[in-house]
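Worked Example 4.2. Read the sequence first, then its C-alpha cells.
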Amino acid sequence: MDDFQQGGGKMSGTMMCKGSTMGDTTMKMDGTYTTEKVSMNLTGEIAEKSLPGGKATVGLSITSERIGDCKS
C-alpha cells in the first residue's frame, strides 16, 4: 500500500496493482475509527482495454461496530 496514514481517528491510503488479471488497478481508501466503530470508503479504477470505454470505476462503503464481547 502506498502512502498509508493512520492516526487521530483517521486513516487513508492508496494501493496500485499493475498487470493483474483484471488490468491495472488503483484503489483509494479513507475512513475514520474509534475503539467501537470503523467507517471506510473505498474507490477504485480498473484500466483494461477489454472493458467498455477501457476502464471501470467501483466504490464501496464499509461500517463496522463493536456489539459486545465474544461468547465462549
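Now turn to a second chain, presented in exactly the same format:
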Amino acid sequence: MVVLRLMIEAGEDRFAALNRLRGLRDCAVETKGQLQWAFAAEPPDAGAKVSDDGGSAWPVARD
C-alpha cells in the first residue's frame, strides 16, 4: 500500500502502478480503504521546479 502510494507520487499512473505491484506481490493492497488511501496521492506537477541546487530532490539548508 505504501509502495503503491510512492509509485504514484513519483509519477506512475495509478492503475499501471497497481498492476505492476500486484504482479510482484498480489496481496500488497488488500482493502478498499487501503486502495483509496494510496490513490489519494498526488503525482508530481510536471512543470514544478524540483530544486535550485543543481538537481538534488532534497531541500538544501541555507545559513
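Notes for the reader: Residues 1-27 form one domain. The mean pLDDT is 82.
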